Amino acid sequence: MTGRTILVLNAGSSSIKFQLYDATAEGRLTRRFKGRLEGIGSARPRLLAWDGAGAVLEDRGFRPEEADEVEEAQAAIGGWLVGAMGGPPDAIGHRVVHGGADYTAPVLADAAVLAALEALSPLAPLHQPHNLAPIRSILRRRPELPQVACFDTAFHATMPDLARRFAIPEALHARGIRRYGFHGLSYEYIAGRLPEVAPEIARGRVIVAHLGSGCSACAMVDGRSVQSTMGFSALDGLPMGTRPGQLDAGVVLHLCRDGMGAAAIEHLLYHRCGLLGLSGVSADVRELLASPAPGARLALDYFADRTAQAFGALAAAMGGLDGIVFTAGVGENAAPVRAMIAARCAWLGVVLDEARNAAHAPRISADGSRLPVHVIPTDEEGMVARHVVEVLRREGRWA
Questions:
Q1: In angstroms, rounded to a whole number, what is the distance separating the alpha carbons of residues 23 and 326?
Q2: CA 156/CA 349 separation, integer angstroms
Q3: Residue from 22, 51, 110, 152 carrying the catalytic annotation
Q4: 245 and 238 Cβ atoms separated by less than 8 Å
Q5: Does residue 152 carry a catalytic annotation?
Q6: CA dist., res. 299 & res. 241, Å (int)
Q7: Residue 58 has pLDDT above 90, yes or no
Q8: Could you report the per-residue pLDDT of 330-381, keeping only the tens digit for each?
Q9: How do the residues of the chain divide into helix, strand and coil, expressed in percent and rounded to 5?
């Protein structure tokens, strides 16, 4: 065998991201193309794809009924994918948000695994059902095709027991009500890149901030997770595009007593809070930065303030701090937001270089800054592809 093709799917509620990799017999990966179908369930679904050099391969729309749900969207792009690949892939990797207490490493997905992961959907209702929809569909149509589920919670399995606890009765902890942490595939990728791009802090105490539409920060010591701002669900911690982050549980109790049902509260917390709720303008940081509305500035100030507070708490959890890394859509591209957070971390010894920050340089801290601050693009799909190779080798399915 000279090599294989690995398709990586990252299915969300309104989009499916995909990347195709050529893998050599030794397991070396080369990305052939990447793309996404966006606008699932909207009036104008659109497929976009680029080759490995960034040239546009496809840009076309679909009728709304062709991409009304994730499974329909998958079928809509399936024909294009098979044509672009020159045939079906040899294996498929999937990002799955929640692995619970039992799945702390990537696994081959079969019917039993799928059933166990579906039981975790109430813990991540915005993500888990959509992550699992393509696995279910492919299992039904192509049961012989290897599929590997890779979990956002798995990287945080190294957190000490104390970091996993809530102050609740032991019986509830035993039932799985504990802190899990998320965005683990992103953090795992960054941990792997640090020895190359920032060797001076790779073995030290580092805060990595994954800031996108979903946001969290992770405390790493020697490349291993020891604490995360996200906990039992993807609602906790930092404020996000439409999720509130840290919220007094008494607010939820108050809403319940006020007559709001569980479904309405869930919709509120996942879809109407965060930057959107604070600003009344948008959940998109780019739009907030461009808006003159007072609510837009309030939302950005709140985001920066809470993120800086979280950095202080994570530094305390590690007993000190040797460096900071920004990643994901906002972390990689929103220089003004990075500057707002860094200004609130001056007491930690953070001094940004304005020109480097504006240019999104790999290191954006000033030469005299006590703490180095880096910007490292993440690659969750690439991390999934690596895990596919590892699992297939472990299972004896990689010649």
A1: 29
A2: 27
A3: 152
A4: yes
A5: yes
A6: 10
A7: no
A8: 999 999 999 999 999 999 999 999 999 999 999 999 999 999 999 999 999 9
A9: 45, 20, 35
Q: Which two tokens stand for residue 340?
A: 């707002």
pLDDT tens-digit readout, 294-327: 999 999 999 999 999 999 999 999 999 999 999 9
- E strands along the chain, which residues? 3-11, 15-24, 29-38, 46-51, 56-61, 91-96, 107-108, 147-151, 205-211, 215-221, 224-228, 323-327, 373-375
Q: What pLDDT shows up at residue 352?
A: 97
Closest Cα partner for 245 from 277, 274, 222, 284? 274
> How far is the C-alpha of 202 from the C-alpha of 220, rounded, in Å?
9
What is the pLDDT, as a whole number, of residue 13? 66
Cα separations in angstroms, 381 against 16, 152, 197, 370: 12, 12, 20, 33
Query: Judging by DSSP bridges, how do beta strands 147-151 and 91-96 pair with one another?
Result: parallel
Interacting residues of 118 by C-beta distance below 8 A, sequence separation 6+: 128, 129, 132
Q: Are strands 147-151 and 323-327 parallel, antiparallel or unpaired?
A: unpaired
Mean pLDDT of 181-188: 96
Q: What are the DSSP calls for 350-374, one per residue? A: --B-HHHHHTT-SB-B-TT-SS-EE
Give the integer Cα–Cα distance in Å for 319 and 312. Answer: 10
Rounded to whole angstroms, the Cα distance separating 81 from 74 reads 10
pLDDT tens across 203-247, in order? 999 999 999 999 999 999 999 999 999 999 999 999 999 999 999
